Amino acid sequence: MTMKVNQEPEEKPLKLYFIHYLAAGHMIPLCDIATLFASRGHHVTIITTPSNAQILQKSIPSHNLKLHAVKFPAQELGLPDGVESLSAVNDIDGLIKVFQATALLQPPIEQFIQDNPPDCIVADFIFTWVDDLANKLSIPRLVFNGFSLFAICAIEAARRNSDSISADAATGGGSYIIPDLPHPISMKATPPKEIGEFFESVLEIELKSHGLIVNSFAELDGEEYIEYYERTTGHKAWHLGPVSLIRRTEQEKAERGQKSVVSVDECVSWLNSKPLNSVVYICFGSLCQFSDKQLYEIASGIEASGYRFVWVVPEKKAKEEEEESEEEKEKWLPKGFEKRNREKGMIVRGWAPQVVILGHRALGAFVTHCGWNSTVEAVSAGVPMITWPVHGEQFYNERLITQVRGIGVEVGAEEWTSIGFGEREKVVSRESIEKAVRRLMDGGDEAEQIRRRAEEFGVKARLAVQDGGSSHNNLTALIDDLKQLRDRKVVHESIA
Fold first, then answer.
1. Which of 10, 237, 248, 429 is the most buried (most CB within 10 A)?
2. Is 3.40.50.2000 the CATH classification of the domain at 15-245+465-495?
């Protein structure tokens, strides 16, 4: 993986280390960002684990980029060999063990960096210990958290106004407005206490870094939120995305992340046979697993809508399928569902080539959990969304999609959980699902306006990453900034 690219001949390339968190939703975009720097001729090393290194070797476009794998503590934690990501586990016990592994990875990563110091470390915000390491080595640290800048602004504004929000939510039946933001953002759910505390702790240390890298483009988050963020935090944010757009060919798009359980040819061939904007894509990311009851409602709702669909269900269902009787299958699928929808629908049990699917002309809408990767991929493809947030910061992203940019409609989810696994108190009904799908797919004036805005943002996304675009210029400015920091350090050390 050492294809040479054009380097700036007059200047020494930067040496950069990237440390991703152990989850596909964190790893994929950060490694795409690493590829952006490598494509400009800089010396980039991604610090990862053996199993994730195998995935990355297949999915990262060839550039002057290296992988350094540190041993994963599978035996110490009782994890099966090869399970080195939150995306590879199916229960809370597995989640806890992978989370514990991140702490055990700190010593070997620190040792490698101390022995071979770079010019800059780019690390996931969950690795808060990188702050002390970067200070010790007197090198800049950039933070990546995989959120939209809008979500971070909302989190910070909600934290600063927590007392007034609590009072408003109590008197308003759970509804409240986040004050002080450029738009009046109304919320119908409050984050679990542990989520709020987690955000507060990691964002506090994030703000000590040299800057924040955002997988988005300025036109989507909005200049008003960039200005708001920098004014209220005194921190710099660098929009470098959408980073999925570095994948030019269909093969590169298909190989992004894990290996798909369905061939791209099969997927594209099926979509090719469908009319323009006629297919609904349903996917809730790699960390969300619904109950059988909720899956049953999704199946019933999409079937009642009458529209064609591609529906991605968790890999767990694929493992169960071999031993699953028709009676057991009917716990999460209506009787005869697959037979009735053989021509109309495709169920993908496991990882799907999402960027390829979203980019197909047959796609008309995306039912999404509002994870930021999925959101920005849909925006890049100009596909309007049906929003169904579940956990993390996803409820804030929903508000950017529906209230601020007007490129989607809400399914009506109001239960904000700490994680994507486990039973929920509320089930989103088949009627709500059917209504949301029809609202976007039936072709009324509202739907046409939403679709037009989504397509306009798709054009803006593609322009942002081209020469002279906002994200392209931000990358150039960030590289220049890091070079200046490195050169000042060299001068200072030579004088000392």
1. 237
2. yes
- Catalytic position from the list 20, 26, 42, 43: 26
Catalytic residue among 32, 119, 124, 221: 124
User: The whole model's pTM is what?
Assistant: 0.92
pLDDT, averaged across the chain: 90
Q: What residue segments make up the domains of the chain, in order of their start? A: 15-245+465-495, 250-462
Instruction: Respond yes or no: is residue 26 known to be catalytic.
Output: yes
198 DSSP assignment: H
Give the DSSP letter string of 40-57: TT-EEEEEE-HHHHHHHH
Span 187-214, pLDDT tens digits:
988 898 899 899 999 999 999 999 999 9
CA distance 85 to 96: 11
62-93: burial string, b at 16+ Cβ within 10 Å, e else? ebbbebbbbebbbeebebeeebbbbbbbeeee
DSSP code string of 286-332: SS----HHHHHHHHHHHHHHT-EEEEEE-HHHHHHHTT--HHHHTTT
C-alpha 367/C-alpha 330 separation (Å) is 22
Q: Would you say 14 and 483 are in contact if contact means Cβ atoms under 8 Å apart? A: yes
Total length of the chain: 496
Nearest 10 degrees: CA dihedral of 185, 191, 195, 199? 10
The reply to whether CATH 3.40.50.2000 applies to domain 250-462 is yes
